[in-house]
Predict the 3D structure of the following.
Amino acid sequence: MASINSFWILSLALLFLASPLLQVAMCQSDSDGAVDATDEASDIGIVGDDAQDYGGETFTSAPGIETISVFPKNSARLVTAGEDTELLVGVKNNGESSLNVVAIRASVHLPFDHRMLVQNLTAQIFNNGSVPSSAQATFPYLFAVSKFLQPGTFDLVGSIVYEIEDNPYQTTFFNGTIEVVEAGGFLSIESVFLVTLGAALLVLLGLWIHGQIQNLSKKTKRAPKVEVGTRSIDASTDEWLQGTAYAQSLSSKSKKKK
């Protein structure tokens, strides 16, 4: 258990300290002490013309091989379309034989269906990427998604291809989501659309409130005024009083005044 914890701690340290110049630093061996990589560090991980490329072939994973990966200084996994993104891959060889890393490759898929391939990314081929038994190493992988890829969430599947005693194997080191964003722009097309839509809704709301206030003001101005005091009475409005004692009283008063 202590050995496993030590592996992950050392791997994370290596992943953040690894050079972006496609060099791999060999870590301390668990059984034989430190590995002297002074003469080998300049060659490990350098792409060579004579390196074996297995293309799109698929292989099984060898027993005893552990991997870990991290996006350095990019924990949000934001990938800018058309620009290089760095991914560091840590490998620990718990097997009995030395392994030789051949290549790192990856592909982009739709998140809801891995059978829907979006893009096969360029493979990174290595020369002299040897990892002895009970040793660990870190390999950088630079990739770029198409600049025409629409921003959004996608699944990235990354595998490392290696040889053990001339037999090819591969291990998947990453299978998760990434967020593709547009290059050069602070706001995506979706963000601009949402901002524009929100502004339009606010303008419409303001116009509606203004119209309601004007209608209320007009109704207030049209309200009839109530006059207090003596006023003339229109006979047409008092037709319902004809024949009553009140009407007769008014009639007699009128005659007396004459």
Remarks:
- Confidence is low (pLDDT under 50) at residues 1-51.
- Residues 65-182 form a domain with the Immunoglobulin-like fold (CATH 2.60.40.10).
- Helices lie at 2-17, 189-222, 245-257.
